[in-house]
Design brief:
Helix content is 74%, strand content 7%. The protein is mainly α. The protein has a domain of 103 residues. It has a two-stranded antiparallel sheet. A hairpin with a 2-residue loop joins β1 and β2. α3 packs antiparallel against α4. It is rod-shaped, with a radius of gyration of 30 Å.
């Protein structure tokens, strides 16, 4: 079996990238800062341009992080309201099915050209289980708040 050259190159490049994927950018920036300041004279315009560019980048990065946190804050509130609404509707529908079954409506099944209609307390139980399972998954997988480490 002959392995194509492209596959070998892709495998080799992937192994090189995975070995280099843990770059310490703060150490690299500190090294670049020390090399720039050591090699340039104090009145060099290149050092001033670098400092201005670095300041502009840091300001942009902080503003971007702030906007990202604000968006996540509002998005989480919107998602929370939607989830509570969906779970509330599920609980209400299951209550209606249970109430109808308690009144003596029992189970009904109707088949017609438009479709199948099933009404029973079992449907209410299924709706209740699905609603509570959805809410549990939301609380355990989506809602947990994790502190961001710097």
């Amino acid at each position: 079996m002959k392995i194509p050259t492209v596959a070998l190159v892709v495998l080799f490049a992937a192994s090189l990238l995975s070995a280099q994927s843990r770059v310490d950018f703060s150490a690299a920036a500190a090294a670049a800062d020390s090399n720039t300041s050591a090699s340039a004279s104090p009145d060099s315009s290149a050092t001033e341009q670098y400092a201005a560019a670095r300041l502009a980048y840091d300001q942009f990065a902080l503003l971007h992080a702030q906007r990202t946190y604000e968006w996540q804050f509002w998005a989480s509130i919107i998602i929370f309201v939607l989830v509570i609404t969906a779970v509330g509707l599920g609980l209400w529908m299951s209550f209606l099915h249970f109430y109808e079954g308690r009144k003596g409506g029992g189970g009904k099944m109707k088949v017609s050209r438009e479709g199948v209609e099933v009404s029973s307390p079992v449907i209410g139980l299924m709706i209740l289980v699905v609603s509570l399972a959805f809410f549990y998954l939301y609380l355990t997988q989506v809602y947990p708040i994790v502190e961001v480490k710097h």
